[in-house]
Specification:
The structure is a single chain. It contains nine helices and twelve strands. By secondary structure, the chain is an alpha/beta fold. Strands 7-8-9-6-5-4-3-2-1-10-11-12 form a twelve-stranded mixed sheet. α1 packs across α9 and α3 runs parallel beside α5. The radius of gyration is 19 Å and the shape is globular. The relative contact order is 0.17. The structure holds S-adenosylmethionine and iron/sulfur cluster (SF4). The site of iron/sulfur cluster (SF4) has 13 residues, from loops.
Length: about 325
């Protein structure tokens, strides 16, 4: 049996790595405004420890690694770390999810470190609304960051938009135009009930199907076939558009049967499912002198504990005790 097969015959090839729980934004759907407990620095894995976990994952069959946070660009020496990940043989796809606030200065060094694929979270094209969503005034910085990333040569540049009814569902035309005029992949992500204090409520959920039918009133959307290492996004393109439109429907059309991922939290826990708080502690093994066999055992235990599916479509808030900022999205 392949060493990375879970009990439901899914091959685990994708590791999402959160390098920090810190963030320079405080998005209403992600970070609680109060009761936010930050990790003590001593509990955060060092880069060397993270690299050990990634290498073990790669030995077992991981081929795709995404770096995330909190805000990954906040962590010091992050560019050197990216360079180290890029040097690990057999990784076929390395990518980053960032809020883009620090991207204008970091895009070029990150590109030089070997990064090519980048996801920038931007839920609105309106600076005032941006402040309402993120509780910070950083719209211009993110917008400039996107321009620099494009100029430096990142491809693809994905723009992640968490779709929230009553908040940004009046901007579909603007996002559609963005995908037509620029080579950006605009991806609508369904709002998920993660974290006890997130502002989630069923009335704010808006399904990908609803967004797609609204977008179709602006022009016909042509389906793009899946490519290797594509995630769960359904991809489309408007006629002659420079970019794409994507839909990530974790709630309305869960993609659990094809789930191929594990998450590593900044405090050294392997999380088999985004929606379930079951986690496997790998930090203790790293810090108590565990050898390769021990690490392998812990990694495989996390694979073995992947549930068949989540049940987040049963619309209840707080399906995870941790806020999203500490899981990595
Ligand atoms: N700070 C980085 C950023 O914002 O891109 C990386 C971490 S963030 C937790 C990763 C992704 O999770 C972002 O695209 C963010 O929009 C998304 N996210 C956070 N909370 C969410 C929620 N409740 N539902 C859906 N997506 C969420
Ligand atoms: Fe920070 Fe990203 Fe969460 Fe926003 S979504 S608070 S940028 S971690």
């Amino acid at each position: 049996m392949a060493p990375n097969l879970d009990p439901y015959n899914r091959e685990i090839t994708y590791l999402r790595v959160s390098v920090t729980d810190r963030c320079n934004l405080q998005c209403v759907y992600c970070m609680p405004i109060q009761d936010l407990k930050l990790l003590d620095h001593s509990n955060i894995l060092s880069y060397e420890e993270i690299l050990e976990v990634i290498r073990m994952g790669v030995d077992l069959g991981v081929r795709k690694v995404r770096l995330t946070g909190g805000e990954p660009l906040l962590r010091s020496n992050f560019v050197n770390f990216v360079e180290s990940v890029n040097r690990i043989p057999k990784i076929e796809d390395m990518s980053l999810t960032t809020n883009g606030v620090l991207l204008q200065d970091m895009a070029e060094p990150l590109f030089e470190a070997g990064l090519r694929r980048i996801n920038v979270s931007l839920d609105t094209l309106d600076p005032l609304k941006y402040r309402k969503i993120t509780r910070r005034d950083s719209f211009d910085a993110v917008w400039k960051g996107l321009q620099v990333a494009e100029a430096v040569g990142f491809s693809p540049i994905k723009v992640n938009v968490v779709a929230i009814r009553g908040l940004n569902d009046d901007e579909l035309r603007q996002f559609a135009h963005l995908s037509m005029q620029r080579p950006f992949h605009v991806r609508f992500i369904e709002y998920m009930p993660i974290g006890q204090n997130s502002n989630w409520g069923p009335e704010k959920h808006i399904s990908s199907d609803e967004i797609r039918s609204k977008l179709e009133t602006l022009g016909s959307l042509h389906k793009i076939p899946h490519a290797i290492h594509d995630g769960p996004a359904e991809r489309y393109r408007f006629e002659s558009a420079a970019g794409e439109i994507g839909f990530i429907s974790a709630m309305s059309h869960h993609f659990c049967p094809s789930c191929n991922r594990l998450r590593l939290t900044a405090d050294g826990r392997l999380r088999p499912c985004l929606f379930a708080d079951d986690e496997v502690d790998i930090k203790s093994t790293l810090r108590n002198g565990g050898g390769q066999e021990d690490l392998k055992e812990v990694f495989q235990e996390a694979i073995a504990r992947k549930p068949r599916r989540h049940h987040a479509e049963i619309l209840v808030r707080g399906q995870s005790a941790r806020p999203m900022s500490t899981i990595g999205g």
